[in-house]
Amino acid sequence: MEKYLNDSYGITVYQEQVMQLSQELAGFTKGEADSLRKAMGKKKKSIMDEMKVKFFEGCARKGYDETIVSKIWSDWEAFAQYAFNKSHSTCYALVAYQTGYLKAHHPAEFMAAVLSRNISDIKKITTFMDETRRMGMEVLGPDVNESNVKFTVNREGNIRFGLGAIKGVGEGAVIQLIGEREENGLYRNIYDLMERVNLNSLNKKTLEAMAVAGAFDCFDEISRAQYFALDTKGTSFIESLIRYGNNAKTIRQSSSHTLFGDGGGFDLVKPEPTACTEWPKLEKLNREKEVIGIYLSSHPLDEFRLEINNFTTATLADLQNLREYLDREVTVAGMVTDTRNGIGKNGKPYGSFTIQDYTDSYRFMLFDKDYIDNSKFFTVGYYLLVKGRVQKKKYREDELEFSIRKIHLLSSVKDELIKTVTIRINPENINTEMINELKDIIRENKGETELRFLFVDPEDKVSLPMFSRTLRVRLNNEFTAFLDDHPGIEYKVN
Fold this sequence. Notes:
The structure is a single chain. By secondary structure, the protein is α+β, with helices and mostly antiparallel strands. It folds into 4 domains: 2-103; 112-292, no CATH class; 303-412, CATH 2.40.50.140; 418-493, no CATH class. Helix content is 45%, strand content 18%. It has a 5-stranded antiparallel β-sheet with strand order 6-5-4-7-8. α8 packs across α10. It is extended, with a radius of gyration of 33 Å.
């Protein structure tokens, strides 16, 4: 590797020498010499040909032998054919080697650095978070007792979201909070935090953003919703906490100036959070996304993983390149995030809706009768399974479109599209405990889906299908979670 780096350095030196020689031999200006260097580096033959004429003319004016000049130029042309590729490929190879080494030997630290580097690019963050989870690590939400400014690795080897990545939270406030934590220990509760931090930097807006993002979830006696619940005076809990923190600091400062250093007889009452119901899951996630930029603690589509895994044939990110799916049936799924409608110049209605999945978002257009038939699905927050075909547009065949054939509510897919569930078991894994657990979960989740079993012996390559005439199941999250988590069991739906 050192040899190749030396070669790369030598190429750079050679290019500088070319610039100097062109000035000395042909009288090139510094600008012309730099243009020659760029043309050689990027193999721009047209510019090289122009420079060749100028170079020969300049050398002739200075009386140099044409044979020698021709040899010099031939060497430069040969150099231009490989110099750029060699120098850059060497550097890229070194970076690739270093990257691969770090990812293999320090995976958590590497992914934390990658996430921190791309914190402003939500699409990349989502991709890197998926890769992090694939590597067996978790990306945990922000935490005032563990997070730093950017992504970091905790003691368990998981990645902790940075407080500085929360929208509305300034880096200065975060540094002050972390400094206090490192100097005087973890925050015992939300009251302890309010007593210790600088509330001029950690103001109401900052504290609200941190509460929404889940940075105070480590104080599990208080829910996120309670920080915003109003008391009988119309004051939120966060506002009461700020008043409490400021009063605590005033009393502490006053005490330090009294003769005996006591509290001066003042009792500081801690405000109590107002009792309220927790935010619904979707509201909690949407609020979280507003301040973090992504769904972090979970995703609204998580409860439809069965439907997505078994019925979709592409992600929304895949639809960014429709040509790969030309003349093919495609099924995607996602949550509706935006809808639009109107009347065209021909007097016919049209509309569009945008759905978002784990990878990206995509906008679908519907016109005339197709719009009328499917406008009932044009509601933000709906979860949809969209079936269609990628084809050339009717009047502009150079452009492609996703033509919708059918739309289903994801919540209805289990009832409308799933008819059977087949549980695949290796006989070696069957024991009394498994049988009893299966009986219990089936008994607790009776429904309308046909239940089948497939006993497979991979060694003897023998399989025995069986089905129940009387037992039918309901494919809810509890039932599928049991099948997903149970060792020795696989399943397929049809």
